[in-house]
Design a protein that fits this description.
Protein name: Cytokinin riboside 5'-monophosphate phosphoribohydrolase
Number of domains: 1
Strand order of the largest sheet: 4-3-2-1-5-6-7
Radius of gyration: 16 Å
GO cellular component, one term: cytosol
Pfam family, one: Lysine_decarbox
Order of helices and strands: EHEHEEHEHEHEH
Largest sheet: 7 strands, parallel
EC number: 3.2.2.n1
CATH class: Alpha Beta
Strand content: 15-25%
CATH architecture: 3-Layer(aba) Sandwich
Number of helices: 6
GO molecular function: hydrolase activity, hydrolyzing N-glycosyl compounds
CATH topology: Rossmann fold
Length: 190
Amino acid sequence: MKRICVFAGSNRGRNQKYTEMAINLGKALAKKEIELVYGGSSIGLMGVVADEVLNHHGKVIGVIPSGLLHGEIVHQNLTELYQVKGMHERKAKMAELSDGFIALPGGYGTFEEIFEVLCWGHLGIHQKPIGLLNIDGYYQPLMQMVHNAIEEEFIPKTHDELFILEEDPERLLEKMNHYVPPADANKWRE
C-alpha cells in the first residue's frame, strides 16, 4: 500500500485517546512511507493525523470542496491539495488516490464516508482494505448493527470480512497490508 485514505472527525472528541491514536496512526503511516490522503483540514482528528505525518517527513494529500475552504480551515503545509466542486467529487477523488481506507472516530461525515466505501466493496466496485480504528470500543455499536444485518440476511456472511477492526494503528496497517477480499458472494438472495 502506497496511500491510505483516512476518514476522521473534524473535531477531536472528548476522549483524549482519540487524539493519541490519531498521532500514533500518523507516525505509523510516515514510518511505513505510506502517504496520507484525507479531507484537507487542519482541525480535529483530521488535522492531528496530517500534522503527525508531516512532522515525520511523510507526504499528505488533501482533497477539499471549495465550499468548505473556510469552515474546515485548509491545512497550509500539505504536500498536495486537490480542490473539488463538492462532496461527491471529494470522496471519488480520495478513493481514486488511495490503496485502502481507515476510519478514526468521527461523526456523520465519517460514518457516511466509511459506509460508502464499504458499500463499494460490497458491490465489488473495489477490493481495497477497509480498517476501523476501534479506539476504546468506538466502533462496537456499528459492528453490532452490521452483525444484525448479517443475521437478518441483508448482508452476506462473507461480507463481514470487508473490513478490519483493530485497536492499534500498527497492527491495523499490518492486517490491511495482508488483506484478501472475501470470496465472491451473491449479494442478492432472490
